[in-house]
Amino acid sequence: MVVASAVSFDERTLLSLSVATLFLGACAHGSPEASAGPTRVKCLGINSCSGQGECAAKAKDGSELNACGGQNTCSAKGWQEVDRSECQAKGGEVLAVVERSSGGCVGTSVPRLAAAEASEEYNLDKARLGIDGYDPVAYFPEGGGAPTPGKTELSHEHEGVIYRFSSEDNLARFEEDPAKYEPAFGGWCAYAMGKTGRLVKVDPEAFLIENGQLMLFYRTKIGDTRDKWADDPQGLRGQADLAWSERTGECRPADGDGG
């Protein structure tokens, strides 16, 4: 006698697919690409409660709660928890990382974008000139230790970016180890990359060498983002690394590599 199954064909099919999915997920566990998920952040300025005045507990006359008085998802705060990509797409400001992606990328070398793509992600002019023509090696002690404009006749193209050098020696140093001397985060402001993930122009003479890597910063007569960076260099560096790798797929050298 054949006993009819209590599970229909469709149910058996769904069950088989579910088991297969779990199996594949278990096999993929540990793979950076497979396990990578979105990075959750506290994002300011993307909802109707971005202004502190709008988020007071009560109206000015004290008679009633206003739109942000805890009656909606803002709950009297200006920030909202979202994926980092959504925060960046809507022009918000990342206040803090809530849950970091497991796909963070820290390698022993710096994989580069194809030359054709470099001008889209790197801080370059129309001629694909990097660092406004400043010598990338000159920032380091062996290259002089100070921002120095390069010479047109000492130009060198690397992975779609044209750099200029102030001396033959610095050009030779760069050719030997370009990953050591190229600026972090495509030459964009390191503070802005860590704080919001945005691409912000820099002052080529506002720089720091940290963990053997050149980082450039936005600076005006009334403010220098290096001061803000100094408030939390480790946290901002980690967030900047993650934002840049999520944007380009590139990895920074592990701390201490390249000098």
Radius of gyration, taken over Cα atoms and rounded to an integer in Å: 25 Å
Outline type: elongated
Mean pLDDT: 73
Q: CA-to-CA gap between the ends?
A: 78 Å
**Fraction in helix:** 25-40%
Structural domain count = 2
**Helix-strand sequence:** HHEEHEEHEEHHHEEEEHHE
Counting helices, strands and paired strands, the structural category is: alpha+beta
Low-confidence stretches: 1-36, 50-60, 63-67
Largest sheet: 3 strands, antiparallel
Number of distinct beta strands: 11
Biggest sheet strand line-up:
2-1-3
Tally of helical segments: 9
- What fraction of residues sit in β-strands? 15-25%
Q: Would you write up a description of this structure?
A:
The protein is 30% helix and 20% strand. It is α+β, with helices and mostly antiparallel strands and 259 residues long. The strands form 5 sheets. It has a 3-stranded antiparallel β-sheet. It has a two-stranded parallel ribbon with strand order 4-11. A hairpin with a 2-residue loop joins strand 7 and strand 8. The protein is elongated, with a radius of gyration of 25 Å.
